[in-house]
Amino acid sequence: MNQINLTEAQLDRVIYSLWDFQQALSALTFLLEECEYKEKYSRVELRRFKCFEATAIISFARPFVTSRGKTTLGLNSLGIQLSKKQKELRDKLIYIRKTIVAHSDEEEMHFRSHTFDISDFDAKMAHFQFDEGLHLSEADVWKFVELLHFLKDGIFKRLFNLAQHQPEMLNKYKQPTK
Q1: How high is the pLDDT of residue 105?
Q2: How many CB atoms within 10 Å of residue 77?
Q3: Which residues are 178's β-sheet partners?
Q4: Collapsing DSSP states into helix, strand and coil, what is residue 22?
Q5: I need a surface site. Which of 2, 95, 150, 177 has the fewest CB within 10 A?
Q6: How far is it, in rounded angstroms, from Cα 99 to Cα 49?
Q7: Average pLDDT for residues 109-130, to the nearest whole number?
Q8: Rounded Cα distance, 53 and 69, in Å
Q9: Which residues are registered as beta bridge partners of 125?
């Protein structure tokens, strides 16, 4: 585990992935601190929990999803191997991100609409109900937390190794180009 062969863009993605994973962990921490999965909540409370869940999913998926043709996090180049269950969870989270959280794919839309008469008026009113539930069970959230820790630990080990053998690669300041 002496040399790590990464381009500068790949190294930047690895480093920034740590921030993405920390954001996801924070969102899951907030969710687990505030949500009792067996309790009933108002729509507003459920939406708050859904915001935490959505932030966790989007932050987690960023390193794995190509954005504007840029590089993604290559776990193989870091020597990080996911188990079958970890790969399934990663794929599930990326699917939720792609079809529900970051986009509104028609195949995944879940709502009900209907009209009703307004008394004393010759008019109808539309009413809409949306799925306010979470996409992940409490057990899924805990598996998600474990996966994030596994990934962060693997990245930290590789970056520690890089700091020992090629410290000049980590002496940098990256800022937005626009």
Answers
A1: 58
A2: 14
A3: none
A4: helix
A5: 177
A6: 19
A7: 81
A8: 26
A9: 116
Find the mean pLDDT for residues 118-145: 87
Arithmetic mean of pLDDT, 148-165: 94
Distance CA 174, CA 12 (A): 8
Phi-psi region of 174 (alpha: psi -120 to 50; beta: other; left: phi over 0): beta
What is the rounded distance in angstroms from the CA atom of residue 3 to the CA atom of residue 134? 43
What is the C-alpha R_g of the chain? 21
Which of the residue ranges 12-16, 55-59, 71-75, 93-97 would you say has the lowest mean pLDDT? Answer: 71-75
- Alpha-carbon span 177 to 145, nearest angstrom: 32
CA 83 to each of CA 25, 86, 119: distance values in angstroms, whole numbers, following the listed order: 20, 5, 60
Per-residue pLDDT at 133: 80
Tell me if the pTM is above 0.70: yes
Q: In this structure, what token pair is assigned to residue 158?
A: 């590789």
* Closest CA relative to residue 166, chosen from 9, 13, 17, 11: 11
Locate 140 and state its tokens: 């899924």
